[in-house]
Amino acid sequence: MRLRGKKGALSQLEQMTSLVVLEPEAHKGKWSSLFGNDNPIWVEFGMGKGQFITQMSLKYPHVNFIGIDMYDELLARASEKAMKAVEGLETELPHPANLKLVRTNVEFIENVFAENELERVYLNFSDPWPKKRHARRRLTHYRFVEKYIHIMNELGEIHFKTDSETLFESSLNSFADMELITRRISLNLHRDGINEEHVMTEYEQKFMGKGMNIHRIEVVVGEEAIRKYREEKQQEKRRAVVEDKDEQEEN
User: Fold this and answer.
1) Is 72 labeled as catalytic in the residue annotation?
2) By mean pLDDT, which of 90-99, 114-123, 176-185, 224-233 is the weakest?
3) Which of 127, 177, 192, 244 is catalytic?
4) FRET partner for 19 with CA separation of 20 to 30 A, picked from 3, 50, 52, 58?
């Protein structure tokens, strides 16, 4: 991503200690304490300008959100977006209370989060790194996915969206090679118009305006999440059997 330097970005971030975390390693294993509650923690790796993570924090007030990026300029823009989002709302803070913006590189997330600390990971429109020799840099490469699994709890899930067919295909193969459970796969998330269920990123809105397809998938990785998934599938099968039997009797 090519960025225009935002003058004074770092000094701006240093003034926003209730929202921005510049030394996240100090909070490893203690993020719940920083939020002041035991609500689940959902993280977006590569949040860009912060539209998605900010809107999610407003939509789900009983979940703690962390938006991560490595560039001061993007954190500054995201912080401005977070403050603007609460204008007119009754709040003790100038931003959503359940939101933190963190400066770090995804390469080192094991130094930022402890085992079982997160419940959900979002990967939205990550750099596709289309050249084969750069495959290890893709955020859905198995070496990154292993990191996510390590820091997620028993309800852990990975939610992934991209406009890149190449990255989506590569990611599907990565998940399959790791024998992970996938669900709700979509090759065109907004086929029938804007899917209001999903909060959109800046890139998503841009790509939608160009008529591009948005690919999406959920990966179930936590033990309890897997158990619930299998239980739901069994219930679906039982309902299907009953419906077939009723239909046969009617005929």
Assistant:
1) no
2) 90-99
3) 127
4) 3
